[in-house]
Amino acid sequence: MSLCAVLVALTGLLAPCAAVAAPHNASLALAPAATVTTVSPTVLTPGQTTNIVLTGTDFVAGTAFSASTAAFVINTATVDSSTQVTLNVTAPSSPVLVAIRGTAPGQAIQTLAAIFVRGSEGTFFPVTPVRAADTRLGIGGRSVPLGAKESFNVSVTGIGEVPATTVAGVVLNVTATDTTSVSFLTVYPTGGAFPPVSTLNFGPNQTIPNHATVGVGTNGQITVYNEAGSVNVIIDVVGYYVTAAGATGAGYVPRTGTPRVADTRAGLPIAPFGTFNVTVTNAAAQGVVGAVYNVTVDRPTANGYITTYPTGEARPETSSVNFVAGQAVPNLVTAKLGTNGGISFYNGSPGTVHLILDGIGFYSTSPDFASYIVRPVPGGPFRMWDSRADLGRPVAEHEVFILSGTKLPVTTTLGVLANATVTQPSTGGYATIFPGTQAPPPSSSLNFGVNETRANQVIPAVLTNSTRDIAIYNDTGTAHYIIDVFAYLQAV
Which of 404, 437, 95 has its CA nearest to residue 244? Predict the structure, then answer.
């Protein structure tokens, strides 16, 4: 689908990928002394007719222009001056990455620009976290805990930076607290059938979070269901995906290579009520607007929470990871970038805490990356696999179990946003969820204690073989695993 290779590294987060179409902000030779310094716009809507302006130096009259696909039509091409070229183009009706080329008189053909043709559907907008519900405080319309087999609806559109319309799905941090029983929460689109999946699992007297991606249902709402006991529920919105009628946002780029971005265990922990900042290198130049990390809290000396927010902005009254003293807790975090590509992690506890950050992916508006759109599962999430029923035994120690993706749409799905749950582990340990065609990465998706049931959102991608296999690596002891699918990654 792309002319560009999937990239590596953030140091943040990222380094440019190798691409046939060079980045639009790079200097490119048109003739021996000519350069292209800017291209605008670089993203077009399918079927759109518009002008693309290239600026630079020493453009040559008589230059012939062409596109890498015949469906991308250059209607007119004018060298306005030695510093500007205007191309009137018509984009094809289907998403594609296009290289625009130029041949100056007597010169070889050269790539001038990368143009991304894609619709808005499934693209992403990160937001400064906003609290949509807190049953302890009456935020979101409910001021009492959620009882056994009880549900309530939460409005997740029209709050904070989330628009009131054109929202297909939301990215949430869901936290359960004041729990009285072993139970689970299920979050799903309001108005849809109740799905047999879990979003967050917990025991009595716990405060525990989980990341979730959920389609938006009737009246811009999601429904939260509790199975047993009573529980207070906190919902924070950290981003949203748009419908075809929305503005065009960013595509998701899975991260490859060594995932570890930061590990404070190599130095000092984060001080009580202190902040740890991470910078995404070259974020603005490469169109990066948000990043996805697996965040593990380790060795906390007091109960508390981590708040993740854009550097330079006021810290919101939200949480990304909740923890108790001595507990190692992982949670997926999607973060909007702030000043100079910065993300801040605030330690909301009176004790010290170590943080381990593994880069999972990022969201970019640039055509220079092979990015994907996200579509919530039509009709709501579904259970893809449960080792208790589908395997009949737990996954063994050091076993890499390959889970067939035959339940996924084979022709379109290149990854999933799933909830991975571990249950009945024989010892404390960790698991990693990753594409079945790859070797296990040196990072964890789930960290857990003996006999603990714990969930975390995972994004195994890119799923490239014909059956879209997903692998589960269990490090220590034996454990059962459950995979519930909430959204698909698809080519733009």
Answer: 95
* Banded pLDDT at 258 (limits 50, 70, 90): low
Pairwise CA distance, residues 126 & 338, whole Å: 11
Written as one string, the DSSP assignment of 403-466 is: EP-TTS-TTTEEEEEEEEEEES-SSSEEEEEEETTSPPPSS-SEEE-TT--EEEEE--B---ST
Dihedral angle over CA of 383, 389, 392, 398, nearest 10: 20
The per-residue pLDDT for 32 is 55
Type of residue at 103:
T
Query: In terms of DSSP bridges, do strands 304-310 and 321-323 run parallel, antiparallel, or are they unpaired?
Result: antiparallel
Return the number of other C-beta atoms located less than 10 Å from residue 83's C-beta.
15
Question: HSE (CB half, 13 Å, CA atoms) of 57?
Answer: 6
CB atoms within 10 A of CB 351: 18
393 and 387 Cβ atoms separated by less than 8 Å: yes
Report the domain count for the chain: 4
Yes or no: say if 258 and 326 are a contact pair by the CB < 8 Å rule: no
Average pLDDT over residues 360-366: 93
SS3 221: strand
Which CATH number goes with the domain that contains 71? 2.60.40.10
Q: Are 250 and 290 in contact (CB under 8 A)?
A: yes
Pair (430, 343) in one structural domain: no
What whole-number distance in Å separates Cα of residue 131 and Cα of residue 309? Answer: 13
pLDDT in tens, 32-71: 557 889 898 888 888 999 999 999 988 899 999 999 999 9
Domain that holds residue 467: 381-491
Mean pLDDT over 235-242 rounds to 97
Longest Cα separation, the chain:
78
**Which of 117, 137, 152 is the endpoint of a domain?**
117
Q: CA-CA distance, 71 to 92, in Å (whole number)?
A: 5
Share of the chain above pLDDT 70, in %: 92
Side chain identity, residue 437: T
Average pLDDT of the residues in 406-429: 90
For 138-228, where are the E strands, in sequence order?
150-155, 167-177, 183-189, 200-202, 208-215, 221-226
